[in-house]
Amino acid sequence: MKQPIISVVMPVYNGADYIRKAVDSVFIQDVPLELLVIDDGSSDRTDEVLAVYQDRENFRYFRNKKNAGAAASRNRGIQEARGKYVAFLDADDWWGEGKLKHQLEVLQKTGYVMCSTGRELMNPDGSSTGKYIPVRETITYRELLKHNSINCSSVLIEREAALLYPMEHDDSHEDYLTWLRVLKTYGYAAGINQPYLKYRLSRGSKSGNKWKSAVMTYKVYRYMGYGTWKSMLFFGSYAVHGVWKYH
To answer: What is the pLDDT of residue 205?
Structure first.
């Protein structure tokens, strides 16, 4: 197997109905890569569905001994990764062709350690909602504090940076917390304003319950070390952007 440049980390829990679309979208990317699927204790046919990929040299399957959550599964994938870069893709989302190659080019050009893309919002059945969420060409720490414009399934990040700031505090939006920590250290992230990510909306997601999501966002600011009033100020900006983003 050619040494992968990118390790794609895909956590899954009971994703038999949709994971093949995600996996196939990884294997159409035209860069040397490996796919690490971290099965978080699925009780459906996920392992059977994935059996068709078992002979691929660039496919690696891991199963957690017990359900640990998406953040812990991603952290395990980062630890197991062999590429210089790590990309994340949830099992119910998928990518457009050329995503990873374009992101590599942007990171090499800018010297940044992280890159995200725009995303098209998809219905639970996989059809398009017709809505698109853009991303800025350059994302700063201060801008990211106002709202989380970085979707986890769109991210490509240097593995060393991902190891430095693993995802933790799953009572909050742990991916948002990681992006803030990365940008506080490295300064900037790149953005590609194209809908390379096809993001499937799901009521069962952590952000599906808006009140719960709001509380989790507030906790992110507290974990970043901000006091009550500053956290509430940032949360107010988050709330305004949240209404704009989805409506």
So the answer is: 54
